[in-house]
Write a structure and sequence with these properties.
The structure is a homodimer of 233-residue chains.
Chain A lengths: L2 E5 L18 H10 L2 E5 L14 E7 L2 E6 L5 E7 L4 E2 L12 E4 L3 E7 H10 L1 H27 L2 H13 L7 E3 L4 H8 L3 H14 L2 E4 L2 E4 L2 H8 L4
Antiparallel strand pairs in A: 1-2, 2-8, 3-6, 3-8, 4-5, 4-7, 9-11, 10-11
Chain A binds a DNA duplex (30 and 30 nucleotides) through helix 6.
Amino acid sequence: MSSIKGKGHCRSCAIRQMSIFAQLPEAALVEIQHFQPSIIHFSANETVYHQGEAASCAYTLRQGLVRLVKTLPNGRTQIVRLIRAGDSFGFDGFIGEPYNHSAIPLCEIEVCRLPLAELLALKRQHPEIENAMMKRWIQHLREAEDMMLELGAKKASERLASFLIRWCEPVGLNGWIELPLSRSEIGELLGLTIETVSRFISDWKRQGWIEERQGRIHLLDTKQLQALACVDD
Amino acid sequence: MSSIKGKGHCRSCAIRQMSIFAQLPEAALVEIQHFQPSIIHFSANETVYHQGEAASCAYTLRQGLVRLVKTLPNGRTQIVRLIRAGDSFGFDGFIGEPYNHSAIPLCEIEVCRLPLAELLALKRQHPEIENAMMKRWIQHLREAEDMMLELGAKKASERLASFLIRWCEPVGLNGWIELPLSRSEIGELLGLTIETVSRFISDWKRQGWIEERQGRIHLLDTKQLQALACVDD
DNA sequence: CGCATATTTGAAGCCCATCAAGCGAAGTGG
DNA sequence: CCACTTCGCTTGATGGGCTTCAAATATGCG
């Protein structure tokens, strides 16, 4: 079950630098305390909010990884975004709409819950927040456009290769990195079946282009993958 | 060729009510005149800006229809958004990035070109703009999520059916409406080939579910299409 | 260890892309 | 005005890529 750990302590918050509150002056942090944002834990697959629910709160991810998911009546699902520590999500309430997707943790997570009304007030007083949010939205829109290109114009192997390359970018394309997504979750992200994902990964392992051990992955031959990926930018 | 028609006259602008400047007080409109936004005409397929170009201006569409397109090195393309009158686009410069897509008119268009630096200044002085822009971004992000679900989780017929239903919504699902997209452009939007699009449309015409005359379309049996579309929301 | 779950692998089939040809409407120039 | 071209759309035939169904193997967890 989810559990409320306590009130947020913005001043000492480890991920504030990565969040939309990074540029806030120290003085403003005291103010936020009045809002008493809640720090909440969720375990893996324990839904933070459901698609269609009234959107009364936004969230900032403090730890872990969250997937934003949309589901068709027939059960087919699509992961529309992956949320990392420092990212905020769940702003649909700003336009009076219910959540457009469900937010489901990929692992144990910790979020900071921000009531929208209070966030709205805070935003009005501090243009830095508005600015930071705006930049995030533009960035997210760009990433969504990139994803649409992936889904609409690329083949299975191309999508998977460019996903792996993007995923491994943080470690400079040459080290080991956690891959906390199951085959099925990778499939839901890329619009593929679990079998197709598994087949290509197995194949590329046999080719010696990638290796994998206990949930971590390592790209050995990025050239080959890059060629497969149909790189554009 | 594109041609600059003259300076914008915000006060008398026919589409201002639909734009991000709708809530601006009359007084502020005079200010904008100093910025002298340019009204520019483009003919169909005459690119407004190219993916990768430095993004120095944003645009508001006054008339016509624009497609935002991303292209792979091998030539495959994906329409990532359709822009209607009143919509603004091309904000990548706000985060210091080049345009993430190309903007290409589907027909003759008229745009209002806004230098980003000046728009930024105007935004700072008038929170209404910032607010309106924020709402648009949230809305666009929601639509992008919807599109990712379409592209990743639906089959050809389902994508096409729900596209037609969405397209015809403005006329209440029971009247004729312009469809200024060619088969090939519908394909680029839905991640399908021109032949697949043509086949289904022809089939549905034969079934008597839709009819089409000189670039206009009419849904006759929305129930059937709805069933095909895998409706979710 | 034993069970549940995730992954792999195989076989079959379908959906859609690809290749190819024909059709119709609009535009051009003689 | 009409042959000719062009372009978008249609329709057919074929093949391949990915899904689906199924079963075996690996992995993790109590």
